Amino acid sequence: MDKPHAVVVGSGVGGLTAAVALYRSGWEVTVLERAASLEPVGAGISLAPNSQRALDVVGLGDRIRSLAAWQGDGGMRGPSGRWISRTDSAAATERFGGSLVLLHRATLIGVLAAELPVSGIRTGTAAKVVDPGTAGGARAVVETPTGNIEADLVIGADGVNSAVRTLLFPDHPRPSYAGFTTWRVVVPAPDQPFAPHETWGRGALWGTQPLKDGRIYAYAAAVAPAGARAADDEKAELLRRFGDWHDPIPGIIAAVEPGQILRNDVHHLLDPLPAFHRGRTVLVGDCAHAMAPSLGQGGNQAIEDGIVLAHHATPDADLGAALAAYSADRLPRTSAIVRKAAQTARLMSLTNAPAVAVRDTLMSVASRFGPALVLRTFDGIMDWQPPQHTYAARTQDTNTARANRRETL
Fold first, then answer.
1. Taking the model in full, what pTM does it have?
2. Is residue 158 included in any domain, yes or no?
3. Residue 180 Cα distances to 88, 144, 354, 356, 394, angstroms
4. Domain-located, residue 224
5. Helix 13-24 vs helix 105-113: angle between axes, to the nearest 10 degrees?
């Protein structure tokens, strides 16, 4: 029998994870990407234990863990360099079964794409879903420059400004501006050693994190009007905002070229969608639940989406029931994380000096009770478990069952 065909619109983290998981479970998969290549516009991404366990399902978790560069301590600092709170990788591992893995987004995209047949990824292909289909009837239709594609399942993975989401839920409010903008860079590591950190100031934040390849991923955020840009260049803007903060921040800014700096306003989808699917079309990642980056969970939740979708939407499943089960699983969880990320973002966005002082004092007091109290913020997030065994475990179970049947015969 012919395999059912799934079309993924967009080749971001969530779309590729869904593609890999569906392909492993027996679907024919086609990924359509508007850009000319899979080289992502982005910098670093933080993968937490929850997404690492999700990637275990498709046999990629250990490959990601091998890229971990965070060893020892880290934490939160003030602009002067004073430590406000401390934690360490061992405490995170003990509490959540693993620590954070920081890697370049291009590395993750490459790992995922390598699991798919070359013919399954079509770059330079603009795609538009013109008919979401009906779960028990007509197939979905995706329009491309070379002709329409009929699909048994369409996965919308086209980001925060998703056209697929608009098609499914045209009357739903669009993502709103979160009140701050971000900058991201990847540069060679500075000569002097540093502990991984986030530094919180008044309405501004800076993070410096090591990568396995010897570079560092640095990111910044600051309260700013929507759409604002530097009158000169973004390097000059970073120097104005963060040039007098503690080392190694000034040196990192000095080392980067203006053209290497990515700046993006942050938008989040505070009003949850009524569902993540309609007909034969389903949403994953930012187009389903765009969130502020303050918990570092955007990409992690997209990975979870892809694994949970494939868990329910097996090739022989009733598609309507499978997509309803996916929405039921993912909507409550991601909606809660979107809200929590917004709350954390508001703490970062404080500009009133007394309020900032209270915030920093409370965090410092919490840190004195040990890393566990600080890490508790991520309870219910990083301790998530995927809804199925890894494929390796399922293969072993299948082989054991076959052996048992042979013995019975």
1. 0.93
2. yes
3. 28, 35, 20, 17, 45
4. no
5. 20
Residue 206 β-bridge partners:
199, 220
Residue identified by tokens 């900032």 is 356
337: CATH:
3.50.50.60
Encoded tokens for 338: 């979107």
CA–CA gap between residue 219 and residue 292 (Å, rounded):
14
Q: Which of 15, 18, 196 is nearest to 123 (CA)?
A: 15
Pairwise CA distance, residues 177 & 173, whole Å: 12
| 193 in any annotated domain | no
Range of the domain at 288: 5-71+95-174+268-347+378-394
Cα dihedral 350, 382, 76, 364 sign = positive
Residue 168 forms part of a structural domain: yes
Render pLDDT for 228-279 as a digit per residue (tens, 0 to 9): 999 999 999 999 999 999 999 999 999 999 999 999 999 999 999 999 999 9
Nearest 10 degrees: Cα torsion 6, 280, 324, 27: -20
What is the rounded CA–CA span in Å between residue 80 and residue 82?
6
For 101, half-sphere exposure in the C-beta direction (CA atoms, 13 angstrom radius) is 26
What are the pLDDT digits (tens) for 53-92? 999 999 999 999 999 887 678 899 999 999 999 888 888 8
Q: How far is it, in rounded angstroms, from Cα 31 to Cα 9?
A: 6
Q: What is the number of structural domains in the chain?
A: 1
